[in-house]
Amino acid sequence: MSLNDHPMKFAHLLRYVTPHRGTLALILLLLLAGGAISLANPWIAGQLTAIILDSAQGRFSLTFILLAWSGLLLFRAVIGFANQYLIGVTGESMSAELRNRVYEHLQVLPLGYYQDRKPGDLLSLLANDSEIISGFVTGTLVQLLPQLFVFAGAFLMMALIDIQLALLAAILLPAYFVAMKVIGRRIRPITGRWIDAWSSMYAFAQENVALIPAIKAFGREPAERARFREHNRAVLGHSRQQIRLQALLSPSVSFLSGIGMLLLLWLGLQHVEQGRIDAAELVSLLLYAMLLAQPLSGLANVYGQVMLTRGAADRLLDFFSVQPEPVSIGQPPLVAGDGRIEYQNVSFAYPGRSPVLEDFSLVIQPGETIALTGPNGAGKTTLVHLLLRFMEPRGGRILINGQDIAEVDITSLRSQVGLVAQHTLLFNGTVRENICYGCPDATDAEMKKAAFAAQAHGFIDELPDGYETVIGDQGVKLSGGQRQRVSLARTLLRQPAILVFDEATSMLDPFGESDLVSQCKEIFRLKTVILITHRPGTLELADRIIQLDPLPQRQA
Hints:
Subcellular location: Cell membrane
Number of helices: 17
GO molecular function, one term: ATP hydrolysis activity
Keywords: ATP-binding, Cell membrane, Membrane, Nucleotide-binding, Transmembrane, Transmembrane helix, Transport
Membrane topology: Multi-pass membrane protein
Protein name: ABC transporter ATP-binding protein
């Protein structure tokens, strides 16, 4: 989808410019001042030429002009420093704000969005596309107007000196724009392929780093190195194509500019011989022609940058157009109650797939522990995700304490449903930070009570720094069973009315499972509990076992 047919406009991204409009206006004024000095240079050079060729002129005039010119050059240097500083700071600020906006949107997207995309694609939005947009605004868009100002000013000064030579320069302009169009239109698709290849390489590397133990265990290091080289080769290939076209664009414009300069020089010398202009005016005119060519070379780079930016803008606009989870503004909180759950004729299907649930109904009484069992694809985890509103049912409704969960505040809903998942999700921080993640204001006594209940205090106390031990990325420094106990402690600390265990004992050995099951009998006593498990030891905890079977496969 291109920006031309995108339901959102490119101006949507430019709203991030608004907070910086004052600074950008100052940058623009400084650039225009620098452009005015550039326009003065050819005139001064012409005056110096006249003084040198006319021996009657006094030495004072030459000295005065040189001093004045030096002052202008110094002023331009100061302007250049201020511009570079302001452009750099503003660009980084815009990048940071856009990254914040991307990350905030990532946080509110439904779970299904992540399941359909590679992490590298999402991280590319933060690392690459945000930088491209801010770089375009500060490095290209803001500088475009001063370049056009210099271009128009140079053409006007040429016309004042010799209108015929100025018109000749104007006639040559279409050739420059044709070159930019022909080469520039090929840059954009290559840039898009480069971004895709880079994202794939990043996602591959991220996955492989997480799977290093498996790679080493199966002796697959050579194969994985070869696969990475293939990804890297694809990135390099697209980069070279992009660089080749970018490298061709500016020299092509410069070559055409050089041909135009030679033609102007040849005709200008004839005009000097004819007495229509003098040598000093010819020098000024040629220097103005060079100023005319400089913005053209800049415009060539601008065109390439526009193609690059359009690709980044397309991806960002597609990303921002994804609808977030249902908002809960103004919706009442889920009233604390006894934990009665009711699924009423619930139907659900993943996009493009056959239904997982169809007219499913189930009532879980307050304080009841039920176990959901059945083969993969039967809908066990889907029922849990619907309960937490990670997804919305296609039909039917779900009630907790008699309230339709679609009509309550989603944050209050999730605060009363505690999930302990099969794949433990821990952060690279201390044990304390992970247990208190959902309750950052919990006291030490409350935290340790939850750890005791999850039978985690024993091994935590033996860690080098106890609860202050850093457990590494995704808890890599802990065993699988230890990670699950920390995850359970984190959930219990929130004291939810409803507990959901999704294969939560899968990483425990039989002895660990037996100990935890014994402890859980006390934990479950006053809570409504959903167990997703196939393990006999855990099934013993259930008051009722619900067998789920996959629906017959058919076209969704």
